[in-house]
Design goal:
This protein is mostly beta strands. The protein has a domain at about 1-60. The protein has strands spanning about 5-10, 15-20, 25-35, 40-45, 50, 50-55, 65-70, 75-80, 85-95, 95-100, 100-105, 110-120, 120, 125-130, 135-140, 145, 150-155, 160-165, 170-175, 180. The radius of gyration is 22 Å and the shape is elongated. The protein starts with a strand and ends with a strand.
Length: about 180
């Protein structure tokens, strides 16, 4: 078994990567760099696969995402960031698919959506928010399709309408105290 620390360079002479190899596989810490010399990503390989936490940066050095890997697959908590450094979303992956609750934020840090995933599909209650932070809608999904009751709110937080879905199809619509069966 041989361990080798390898460095590569961009054509402009800037460091491009620092990677540790065990025999012929990447194994150990790594760092990749943008052509301007800023860190692009860092993390760890194990037996040639990404393992543990990796961080990714844009060309100005701002963190753009943080993700966890297991055996080369996204697995565990993740965070994505807007260009201004504000958190854009957070949640979790399981075997390269979104799993469980996730939250999404506007560039000003305001919550814009709460979602739930199962096996990479929207599944369960989801909430969407107006720019002013008021609840805009509550929608339930089952395997990426609308299922069950949905509620929609105006920017003042007042209920504006309701719908009901079955197997992804609209079955009932209620607006202004009018019920319209489909």
């Amino acid at each position: 078994m041989s361990i080798k620390n390898e460095r590569t360079y961009h054509e402009n002479g800037q460091l491009a990567s620092k990677v540790t190899y065990k025999d012929v596989k990447r194994d150990g810490p790594y760092e990749y760099y943008h052509e301007n010399g800023q860190l692009a990503s860092k993390g760890t390989f194990k037996d040639g696969e990404l393992e543990g936490t990796s961080e990714y940066y844009n060309e100005n050095g701002q963190l753009s995402r943080r993700a966890n890997y297991k055996g080369g697959c996204l697995h565990g908590p993740f965070e994505y960031y807007h260009e201004n450094g504000q958190l854009a979303s957070k949640g979790a992956y399981k075997d390269d698919r979104w799993e469980g609750p996730s939250e999404y934020y506007n560039e000003n840090g305001q919550l814009s959506r709460r979602a739930n995933y199962k096996g990479g599909c929207l599944h369960g209650p989801n909430e969407y928010y107006h720019e002013n932070g008021q609840l805009a809608s509550k929608v339930t999904y089952k395997d990426d399709r609308w299922e069950g009751p949905s509620e929609y709110y105006n920017e003042n937080g007042q209920l504006a309408s309701k719908d009901a879905f079955k197997d992804g199809e609209l079955r009932l619509k209620i607006r202004d105290d009018d019920t319209i069966p489909f």
